[in-house]
Design brief:
This protein is 9% helix and 28% strand. The protein has 325 residues and is mostly beta strands. It contains 4 helices and 37 strands. The mean pLDDT is 94. The strands form 7 sheets. An 11-stranded mixed sheet has the order 8-11-14-17-22-25-28-31-34-36-37. A 10-stranded mixed sheet has the order 7-9-12-15-18-23-26-29-32-35, with no helix packed on it. A 6-stranded parallel sheet has the order 10-13-16-21-24-27, with no helix packed on it. It has 2 domains: 93 residues, MurE/MurF, N-terminal domain (Udp-n-acetylmuramoylalanyl-d-glutamate--2,6- Diaminopimelate Ligase, Chain: A, domain 1); 210 residues, UDP N-Acetylglucosamine Acyltransferase, domain 1 (3 Solenoid).
Length: 325
């Protein structure tokens, strides 16, 4: 799918890309590369990356033409995918992404915004005081927007949505019947950077936030947009106050997540998951459906379907109770 908000500067010649990122020791036949994508969505004439054995099952079936990976992992790639070898896979991937999407690195304030009463939405939306709207914004019917809220550029809001006061939204797609309560920040860049000699190289964040129908986002919550893939909140999922969701996290339908829960990047939750307050979910984990996680727990490994866990590190609830009598 074409990136909805960030402009792709490609296609680029593969050897031109290698020269720009100082990997001139690897020469390929002249070929145009259309885009950089995550390993599951990449297609022919795309570049992807593969840095962990956790993703072997996806690497084996990737349709990408090129993959940034290590010498120890290259054997898992299919014949259609040529390895680009580096021991700094994520740094190289970040540099390539910046070439394709140079405008995705920074998140300065949106200079395109103007007062809502000067826009096409002045007679379509019920709004409070000091509401600002940026370029490339679409808002459906029967929506409310509270005081001092800024809908920055690149936002789609569906029908019958309520956006609270002091909210900032950008690079997001919000579907119908969604409530975003006061003080939320949605769609800003994630916490992605890599040490590079004497400085830190910021990872471009080219994904978006997608909030599905009938979801509710509690006060003071932050949802980072995706890096290469998208951050997704499923249908009828309710988030309590002061929750942080990092880039690429995907939360299923009908989930209930209590206050001050934090999600590290790229973790996936199934449907009907319940999480108690102040729990922490580490990155790149798979949490199954119908899972219950007790408050204050620290989840550092995958959890299968239909499981109840608690504690740090989180363990089966019966085992936790037995160990803490």
């Amino acid at each position: 799918m074409e990136n909805p908000f960030f402009k792709n500067t490609g296609p680029h010649n593969i050897n031109y890309l290698m020269k720009l990122i100082d990997l001139n020791n690897q020469n390929f036949s002249d070929e145009k590369i259309n885009d950089i994508k995550d390993i599951s969505s990449a297609q022919n004439n795309d570049i992807t990356f593969f840095h962990s054995k956790k993703y072997i099952h996806l690497a084996k079936i990737t349709k990408a033409s090129y993959c940034v990976t290590t010498d120890s992992l290259k054997s898992y790639l299919p014949n259609n995918c040529k390895p680009i070898l580096s021991e700094k896979v994520l740094l190289v991937t970040a540099k390539i992404t910046k070439i394709f999407y140079p405008d995705s690195v920074t998140d300065d304030f949106d200079s395109t915004v103007e007062k809502i009463d000067k826009t096409e939405f002045k007679d379509k939306v019920k709004f409070g005081k000091n509401v600002l709207i940026g370029k490339n914004v679409k808002i459906g019917i029967d929506c409310l927007i509270g005081h001092n809220t800024i809908i920055e550029k690149n936002v789609v809001i569906g029908n019958n949505c309520s956006i609270g006061s002091n909210v900032i939204i950008r690079n997001s797609i919000i579907n119908n019947n969604v409530y975003v309560l006061d003080g939320c920040v949605i769609g800003k860049k994630g916490f992605g950077f890599f040490p590079d000699k004497a400085s830190n190289f910021r990872y471009p964040q080219i994904g978006v936030v997608i909030i599905e129908d009938n979801a509710e986002i509690g006060c003071g919550s932050t949802i980072d947009r995706g890096s290469l893939s998208n951050t997704i909140i499923g249908k009828n999922t309710y988030l309590d106050n002061q929750i942080h969701i990092a880039h690429n996290v995907k939360i299923g339908n009908n989930c209930i997540i209590a206050g001050q829960v934090g999600f590290a990047g790229s973790s996936t939750l199934g449907n009907n998951v319940m999480i108690g307050g102040q729990a922490g979910i580490s990155g790149h984990l798979k949490i199954g459906s119908n899972v219950q996680i007790g408050g204050g727990s620290g989840v550092i490994k995958d959890i299968p379907d239909n499981t109840k866990v608690m504690g740090y590190p989180a363990k089966n609830l019966k085992e936790f109770i037995k160990d803490n009598r």
